[in-house]
Amino acid sequence: MTEDAEVIIRRMTEADLPRVKGIDSLMTGEERAASWPVEAEKLWAVYRPLLSFVAECEGKVVGFILGDIRGVDYGTSASSMSGWIDMVGVDLRYQRHGIGRKLVEAFYQECQRNQVRARVLIREDDQRLKKLWGAAGFKRGKLIDFER
Questions:
Q1: What percent of the chain has pLDDT over 70?
Q2: N or C: which end of the chain has fewer CB within 10 A?
Q3: Domain total for the chain?
Q4: What is the mean pLDDT of residues 25-35?
Q5: How far apart are CA 23 and CA 122, in angstroms?
Q6: Which of 11, 87, 94 is nearest to 57 (CA)?
Q7: 10 Å Cβ neighbour count for 85?
Q8: pLDDT tens digit sequence for 85-137
Q9: Can you tell me whether residue 44 is helix, strand or coil?
Q10: Which residues contact 64 (CB under 8 A, 6 or more apart)?
Q11: Is 145 part of a structural domain of the chain?
């Protein structure tokens, strides 16, 4: 990626899915966030996230963010809708150029337009994503999960 390469953020379409799947498949092993064990293609197939964006650079999709606006899920009340980020991915060759930050900002701006908070759930032990979300201006919320 050249220094002057323009990054365009736009809504994701089904036509973007093969490239998103390709980026997601690169994020394996240590590159895959522990909080996101499900593949992007499966999230898209099941939920068709309505608040999803891709980043294009030099004519190709180099990153994505999948999410939507919903309530009730995750213990929120029907009257308190939120924008939920389900997954973010950036091609390994394009990381550390602010592309992930731009995708999160596009998601956040859409949440602002819809007058809802932007939220994301991650695993307690996922240090990398804790760092990412902290750097993106997110703060720890009040939800706690229990399992048996």
A1: 76
A2: C
A3: 1
A4: 58
A5: 20
A6: 94
A7: 26
A8: 888 999 988 988 999 999 999 999 999 998 888 988 888 888 878 888 888 89
A9: helix
A10: 12, 16, 20, 23, 24, 40, 52, 53, 54, 55, 87, 88, 89, 103
A11: no
Q: What is the CA radius of gyration of the chain?
A: 15
| Mean predicted lDDT score pLDDT of the chain | 81
The residue assigned the tokens 């939800």 is 143
Q: What CATH number does residue 12 fall under?
A: 3.40.630.30
Residues near 75 by beta carbon (within 8 Å), at least 6 away in sequence: 143
Q: Taking the model in full, what pTM does it have?
A: 0.79
Within a domain: residue 146?
no
What are the CB-based long-range contacts (under 8 Å, 24+) for 4-8? Answer: 5/57, 5/58, 6/57, 7/55, 7/56, 7/57, 7/62, 7/97, 7/98, 7/99, 7/102, 8/55, 8/56, 8/57
How many Cβ atoms from other residues are within 10 Å of residue 34's Cβ? 14
Distance, CA of 65 to CA of 107 (rounded, Å): 8
What domain range is 110 assigned to? Answer: 7-135
